[in-house]
Amino acid sequence: MSSEFGIVIHGGAGTILRMSLTAELEAQYRERLQASLAAGYEILEKGGGGLDAVCAAVNVMENSPLFNAGKGAVFTHEGHNEQDASVMDGRTLECGGVASVKRIKNPVDLARLVMEKSEHVLLCGEGAEAFATKYNIDLVDADYFYTDMRWNQLQKALEKEKHLKTDYSQLDHTPDDKHGTVGAVALDKEGNLAAATSSGGMTNKRFSRIGDSPIIGAGNYANNSTCAVSTTGHGEFFMRCLTAYDVSAMMEYKQMTLTEAAEIAIVEKLTRLGGTGGLIAIDRQGDIALPFNTPGMYRGYRLANDEPAVAIFKE
Amino acid sequence: MSSEFGIVIHGGAGTILRMSLTAELEAQYRERLQASLAAGYEILEKGGGGLDAVCAAVNVMENSPLFNAGKGAVFTHEGHNEQDASVMDGRTLECGGVASVKRIKNPVDLARLVMEKSEHVLLCGEGAEAFATKYNIDLVDADYFYTDMRWNQLQKALEKEKHLKTDYSQLDHTPDDKHGTVGAVALDKEGNLAAATSSGGMTNKRFSRIGDSPIIGAGNYANNSTCAVSTTGHGEFFMRCLTAYDVSAMMEYKQMTLTEAAEIAIVEKLTRLGGTGGLIAIDRQGDIALPFNTPGMYRGYRLANDEPAVAIFKE
Q1: pLDDT digits (tens, 9 = 90+) for A39-52
Q2: Cα–Cα distance between B183 and B84 in angstroms, integer?
Q3: Residues of chain B by 3-state class (helix, strand, coil), percent to 5
Q4: Chain A, 53-112: which have a CB under 8 Å from a chain B CB?
Q5: Any chain B CB within 8 A of the CB of A191?
Q6: A260-290 pLDDT, tens digit each
Q7: Where are the domains of chain A?
Q8: A197: helix, coil or strand?
């Protein structure tokens, strides 16, 4: 499956069943996944950088209400949207992330700005938004992120909570809501790997919870000597497992193939701890892996001189 | 050097030179390092848990104005204190962290509460403080963190900045100021490993920068099958290297000893990227490592049935 260049994307993993997805909605998802792939692939084909490609692919999903990132971000308990994102450049091991930002249209672009313009790896909350303002990134009104679907998900979660003897720290963990990250990984013609991840977090989340998406090594990792990885799923488990870095470490230290390392990270290690989700990965040979332990994962890939492929369900 | 149980601590690494430390101040540091070791060791000796021991040891340093964590935290650009901390339990791989908290006396205790009482790994800012309030942790007045030394460091950094053509994202990176994290790792009599890290961040920091201290795998990691690690230094480099987890990964995947893995993580990998700092580590056999690539690191250890040892300089 080796390839000169290529891109792999995901739009979230979870309990995505054929019966719960109308034909119309499925078609919409497939169309946006294709558009995301096309945006990234076009850059790679023209000889552009992997980092440009993954950000362009993620932007397409961030700008769609279908995915839990950017425009389609889920609501927190208080009715806000708090988003996390990160990027990593496999050539330099430089990386950047933002956590709990409320008014950034494309969090992945701000993560890239943190990488390129600050000395830091991770900025959060209003501090990250102040940083955005310094670099003339417009803050959008909170209204921009309003969608009926996400608002109704929050109302359902709040309603359900009322009937539960629930702890303040408990969240709504219906599988539909919790797996909504988007991400992309790419190998460019120069042989550089890059990864980008962006997430709206969890419906009804509280206490400015930060998930795995902005955490280098957990939700995102790229290293030219091994692979690029972006994860999606129940973030806390990816943080405990350092899943994204772990795929790279197993390749580097145990001489595993990308496929072996990615399978072990999800099917064995994540599953053993009780975590659910998946990852996408590409290595320097253009081999790819897309393992997940949930019924479905919105995903796609396109390798050099080949047709794009998108899929949603398991088989 | 194997031992039935033991504790290792650090109080920060950096340009600590004999000539710049008065005899009186050096004696104060040594006394507090001894007190921190004693607090943790006493718990271990009585058969208490590693997690209790590392938190007790860190609390002693957090409560002292000498270290850049808790009471002695440095000031941000705006004159606040924004602290980061995390803990990890090597038996369960459970972990918790808080980032950018302003009014928590002992951030490491709140990190432990996140681990034990929430479903999350990382909470930030006012959300984390709201979580603290739910669990009846008193918020302290910001005045609590005022110390002349740290305030003067900020004034010096601000003054210096005026004379520099500095970018908004640039920080004061005088070596004295940037390496102030504290941490502890322990092996208890049950064979459980634990790690805790707490940091006041960087003098004059902006934009709610989050360092490596609250990031599992970067500034802190514990796994009963390998080791417990706490790092200190220029946090961004530890985040890019996943230093704490990397020590564990090299032990697990390459069958390295703790000493070999810890040395490679600091002396080779961190140094190659241009990072400065150190780490403390202990493994399940009670072997320990304390590598650093700076002129000094406040540090100490005490192993079962042995005398405590503390040190500051390189020799």
Answers
A1: 999 999 999 999 99
A2: 12
A3: 40, 25, 35
A4: 93-95, 99-100
A5: no
A6: 999 999 999 999 999 999 999 999 999 999 9
A7: 6-313
A8: strand
B208 in the Ramachandran plot: left (φ > 0), alpha (ψ -120 to 50) or beta?
Answer: left
Per the CB < 8 Å rule, is B242 touching A242?
yes
Is the CATH code 3.40.50.300 the one for domain A6-313?
Answer: no
- For residues A297-308, average pLDDT: 96
The gap between the terminal CA atoms of chain A, to the nearest Å, is 19
**Residue type for B173, please?**
H
Beta-bridge partner residues of A227:
A283
- Contact: A134, B169; criterion CB under 8 Å: yes
Asked if residue A247 lies in contact with residue A282, where contact means CB atoms within 8 angstroms, the answer is no
Q: How many CA atoms lie within 13 Å of B297's alpha carbon, on the beta-carbon side?
A: 26
d(C-alpha A293, C-alpha A157), whole Å: 24
Pairwise CA distance, residues B58 & B41, whole Å = 12
In the residue annotation, A92 being an active-site residue is answered as no
Q: Which chain A residues have a beta carbon less than 8 Å from that of B87? A: none
Write out residues in chain B with pLDDT < 70, as ranges.
1, 164-179
3-state SS string over A247-271?
HHHHHHHHCCCHHHHHHHHHHHHHH
pTM of the model: 0.95
What is the rounded radius of gyration, in angstroms, for the C-alpha atoms of chain B? 18
Better-predicted residue by pLDDT, B179 or A169 = B179
pLDDT at B262: 98
Q: What pLDDT score does A204 carry? A: 87
CA proximity to B194, closest of B229, B238, B232: B229
- The pLDDT, as a whole number, for residue A42 is 98
Residues of B in contact with A95 (CB under 8 A): 239-240
Yes or no: say if B217 and B249 are a contact pair by the CB < 8 Å rule: no
Catalytic residue among A76, A181, A197, A203: A181
Taking a C-beta distance cutoff of 8 angstroms, is the pair B239, A216 a contact?
Answer: yes
User: Which residues neighbour B234 within 8 Å (Cβ) at sequence distance 6 or greater?
Assistant: B173, B178, B179, B275, B276, B277
Predicted pLDDT of residue A179: 61
Indicate the SS3 state at residue A146.
coil
**Catalytic option among B181, B243, B276, B294:** B181
